[in-house]
Specification:
heterodimer, A: 348 residues, alpha/beta, D-Maltodextrin-Binding Protein, domain 2, eleven-stranded mixed beta sheet, B: 537 residues, mainly alpha, MetI-like fold, 2 domains, globular
Chain lengths: 348, 537
């Protein structure tokens, strides 16, 4: 009688004890204890682990500061930092795009960066209120098919893409984050009306839709389309596999929205002590240093943003690309962009 | 022969010692609702949220989500009925193997299944190349609404299969022969005995599948099947505004409550005949040569879900053999996944028992409300649950208690409980409804206290259902991704996290290792359960 109750109850008790025992020995308690005494920097990282972990390892080897990282989606990490509030464990936030950094900055979650860090990066690629800085750049470009076009034939402004001769020959990826950032940039520099008109004209001109950037480059290479709106580095990844890939990048003219340069960047999260600020600063300095910048450039073909570091061979120098005159942090205002895209039926 | 229509509910209020733990369980289950309401209340200043809600596109997506949920639930019930009939009520050969195969898709996360299907339908994949041989040059890209329906049916039907199977196992020869003795041919027994017995189980299963589909995000986004959850996610991504995203989550909760009310209404009309199972002999329809067709159909379903997925994963591992594949971290993730999911399963089973007892046995509107609210966590996207847990964690003042929860697996386990409690509650309720209260009343009349009666008689009889509920949570928690990503302690990974990490970089060979490990572990657990059941017979 009571045997059965005893057995079931004790089984439950044993299970719960195991659960508690295991959780009491969790890393979190250890982290909280050693935080301000040992040299640890906590990073919330929206970039992929495979890409960034080696950089963190090299940083630890060089400085002795241990890196504890949480990898995830940039937008979700922004939500996490907001919910964690003052007691967030994050020291550094490494975002995939500037919009996320701008959002956190506007809500007051980022601290001002030290002057030496800011000085090494062009002011177009960092926050105007000094709260975040870009680490590597992604330029928007028009990829064109070399099999059917010469460089002079390719328009040097995205506004020329609505021309009748490009009917059905242009590809875009409206659900892609980089494309949406580009449309937001167009709204900021040219205004909402012009942007809405351009979008509907492109749709009328039978622009072809693709889910992501890679399929667009693939389609240009196979001749399915002649022009595509993509980020600059996809082409190089294709050329790495096949040097004879029949496509090239063309950057649009100075100030055109089509040459937006978005950045992956970092900021220091509010609420830390001086020790934590120092280790965060050390990490950011490393990320802007030659070693890390060249690593990112060689791995992903993105543009290094630290002054004095050259991009990988074959990339058009960043100084020659003149992005539109907008504040990258403002690219967090995607609401209107999405509404416009939905209105023309580009996204569901 | 005792009256066949004895209800499972008795007409007394729930005792306090049972109500208290049920309320604790209910409090845990209602956390996401509280979070969403609190955050949504702060959305007054959020720009554009009300216009987004009123937009035609948003309303279309709501309709789409509901349509997806209804279609997937119906398809899952149909598939499950067919499979369960073959394995439980017929003389189809290889029944035990087919049972394991029938439950196997539970081991595969929907997004992995979606990835496998996208690959298989592409020109390099097995279906794509087969089509090429037949003469079809290029299959249409596998994406969109119907792709979502197919993939979700194939990988979520086990939620319906389990309750339907459990109901079918309870059908005894006595019932079939009673129907025969009334002059109905054996075939009609299907209509007069099987369907009424199975209907409540099918309803529970359909509800679970529908709710899961509403909150599912990974597979539908891969297949570009745009649902309302995607709108919620896009809102986080585009505005980084917690309040407006919470308003959208609130809309989802309203949809869920509506669906729950619908099922409540259906449930009331499909009162299961509570029979005293005196003759436990199982009846099996003799299908003759058709039994091989039955076996073939079951095998086909398994092939289309687990078979195809495992095939694609193995292919990727094979192709990636030249590159360096790291097995070390996969082993440590395996042990982490196993014990965290097991803890979640055990805790869920424990919390589910009082809730199930209160809502099934006693006349308690509060209990019914708690049971209804447990379903909310299941239907919400993982990111909302995760942020909700963080929100409440931050309300705990600094100190020992805070540090125990912060950055520990305990908060992940709690998130799993919030997410998967309805699975355990449903399982325990199903078994409780078949235990007539007369047995407890017999115990009471012999002078035992109600506590003792419930503890010794009811729970002992309900034990298979309790364990089944815990195991179901274990299998489902292993695959969880969005909440785990955000809440896990630093530097730790589960198998699902490793799969996601690798697929983000398109390193499919590296992603296949933890995915195969997940499937192997789940199939192993399922095989053990089925074997144990067979030995007990």
């Amino acid at each position: 009688m009571f045997g059965k109750v005893f057995r079931l109850g004790s089984m439950g008790l044993v299970i719960l004890t195991c659960v508690l025992a295991a959780t009491l020995s969790s890393p979190g308690i250890a982290l909280a204890k050693h935080r301000d005494t040992e040299r640890i920097v906590v990073v919330y990282c929206g970039r992929s682990k495979a890409l960034v972990a080696p950089v963190f390892e090299k940083f630890t080897k060089k400085t002795g500061i241990k890196v504890v990282a949480r990898y995830g989606d940039t937008a979700e990490l922004v939500g996490l930092i907001q919910e964690e509030g003052k007691r967030t464990l994050a020291d550094v936030f490494f975002a995939q795009d500037a919009g996320a950094l701008g959002a956190l900055s506007h809500k007051g979650y980022l601290q001002k960066l030290p002057h030496d860090v800011l000085a090494s990066v062009d002011k177009r690629y960092r926050a105007s209120d000094d709260t975040w800085v870009g680490i590597s750049g992604r330029a928007r470009t028009i990829v064109y098919s070399t099999a059917s076009l010469n460089e002079e034939d390719v328009p040097d402004s995205v506004f020329d893409l609505t021309d009748a001769k490009w009917k059905g020959k242009v590809g875009w990826a409206p659900t892609n984050g980089s494309f949406q950032a580009f449309v937001t940039a167009m709204r900021k520099s040219e205004g909402d009306r012009t942007t809405a008109t351009w979008l509907s004209k492109m749709v009328e001109n039978d622009v072809r839709e693709y889910p992501k950037n890679s399929p667009i480059v693939q389609a240009v290479g196979s001749g399915e389309i002649q022009l595509g709106l993509v980020n600059h580095y996809y082409l190089y990844r294709y050329k790495e596999r096949d040097p004879n890939f029949p496509a090239e990048n063309k950057f649009t003219k100075s100030g055109d929205p089509g040459s937006l340069v978005n950045v992956a960047g970092v900021g220091i999260v509010q609420g830390g002590s001086t020790v934590r600020y120092e280790v965060a600063d050390a990490l950011i300095n490393y990320l802007l240093g030659k070693e890390a910048q060249e690593y990112f450039s060689s791995k992903t073909y993105e543009y290094p943003l630290s002054a004095g570091v050259q991009p990988t061979q074959g990339l058009r120098p960043l100084a020659e690309i003149n992005p539109p005159d907008i504040s990258l942090g403002d690219l967090n205002d995607l609401q209107m962009t999405l509404k416009m895209l939905r209105a023309v039926g580009a996204i569901p | 022969m005792i009256s066949a229509l004895a209800p499972a509910r008795i007409n007394t209020r729930a005792p306090a010692w049972l109500m208290a733990p049920a309320l604790v369980g209910g409090a845990i289950a209602v956390l996401p609702l509280l979070y969403v309401v609190i955050r949504a209340a702060g959305s007054g200043e959020s720009p554009g949220i009300w216009s987004t809600l009123a937009e035609r596109a948003t309303l279309l997506l709501v309709g789409r989500s509901i349509a997806l949920a209804v279609l997937v639930a119906t398809g899952a019930v149909v598939v499950s009925f067919m499979l369960a009939f073959c394995t439980e009520l017929s003389n189809v050969p290889f029944r035990r193997l087919l049972t394991v195969l029938a439950v196997a898709p539970m081991a595969v996360p929907c997004y992995v299944g979606a990835l496998a299907y996208i690959h298989a339908m592409s020109p390099q994949g097995v279906i794509g190349s087969a089509a090429h041989i037949v003469g079809i040059d290029r299959l249409p890209v596998f994406s969109g609404f119907w792709a979502g329906v197919i993939v979700l049916i194939l990988f979520t039907y086990p939620f319906a299969y389990l309750p339907i199977r459990a109901s079918m196992r309870r059908i005894s020869t006595a019932q079939i022969e009673a129907s025969r003795s009334l002059g109905k041919p054996t075939r009609m027994a299907v209509w007069h005995v099987i369907i009424p017995c199975v209907a409540p189980g099918a309803a529970v299963g359909a509800l679970l599948v529908a709710l899961y589909t509403l909150g599912e995000f990974g597979a539908v986004s891969l297949l570009r099947c745009n649902t309302f959850t995607r709108v919620i996610y896009l809102r986080y991504k585009s505005s980084f505004d917690l309040s407006s995203a919470a308003v959208l989550a609130l809309v989802l909760i309203v949809i869920v409550l509506f669906v729950l009310a619908l099922f409540e209404w259906l449930d009331a009309h499909w009162r299961e005949p509570g029979t005293e199972v005196t003759n436990r002999a199982r009846y099996r329809f003799s299908l003759g040569p058709w039994r091989w067709v039955g076996a073939g159909l079951c095998a086909l379903v398994a092939l289309a879900s687990v078979g195809l997925t495992v095939g694609v994963l193995v292919k990727w591992v094979w192709q990636g053999m030249q590159a360096q594949l790291d097995l070390g971290p996969v082993w440590s993730a395996l042990s982490t996944t196993a014990w965290v999911s097991a803890a979640a399963g055990a805790l869920c089973a424990l919390v589910a028992v009082p809730i199930a007892l209160v809502s099934t046995r006693f006349r308690s509107p509060l209990g019914a409300l708690i049971e209804r609210f447990t379903h909310l966590g299941f239907a919400l996207p993982g990111i909302v649950i995760a942020l909700g847990m963080v929100f409440f964690l931050q309300r705990i003042p600094d100190g020992k208690l805070f540090r125990i929860f912060n950055q520990s697996w305990l908060i992940v386990i709690l998130a799993y409980v919030v997410l998967y409690l309805p699975l355990a509650v449903g399982s325990v309720r199903a078994v409780l409804m078949r235990i007539p209260p007369r047995l407890e009343e017999a115990g009471l009349s012999l002078g035992r206290s109600r506590f003792r009666v419930i503890a010794t008689v009811t729970i002992a009889m309900a034990r298979p259902g309790i364990i089944a509920g815990g195991l179901l949570v274990f299998l489902t928690a292993m695959k969880e991704l969005p909440a785990t990503l955000l809440l896990r302690p630093f530097g730790t990974e589960t198998l699902a996290v490793q799969v996601w990490d690798a697929t983000e970089d398109a390193r499919f060979a590296q992603a296949s290792l933890p995915a195969l490990m997940m499937i192997a572990l789940s199939c192993g657990v399922v095989a053990i359960i089925v074997r144990k059941e067979g030995m007990m017979r």
